[in-house]
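<derive_structure_tokens>
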Amino acid sequence: MIISIIVAFEKSRGIGKDGRIVWDFPCDRLHFKELTMGNVVIFGRRTFEEIGRALPGRINIVVSGTKSFESENLFTCPSLSEAIKLAGRLAPARKIFLCGGQRIYSEGLALAQTIYTTQIDAAYPCDAFFPELPEGEFTVSDHTSTCENGIKLDFITFVRCQLTL
């Protein structure tokens, strides 16, 4: 079971404001879709509510202790650890993508083998942030760039460093 994080953030590592993403880049949405399609996506409740529906072609798991979301390919768990266990039972051969928000990213950082980032070269007003990567624990494995609406986007993939003895 491979656990990955997928995140877009702006210059100050902001990921959103008032429970919403404050930018829209179609190329980033396509990048997200291509990576997550056919796999498992795990969201915090506020992130899921902002999306407003289960994402098609994926198993969706919402982490919430206060609300329950259930339908075809949509499940709710009270904690990230329970969500990962459920993902392993439902789809043991598929990748797991932690898709936000801030709490899911913070808790999931210690578990992730891969982190797919879209780094937006612009500043937006944000009140939720992606944590700094622990120094020396990740290395860049892929980096591509594009521009959309005059703003540079860097798609950078980090992989957890392997300890050698």
About this structure: The mean pLDDT is 95.
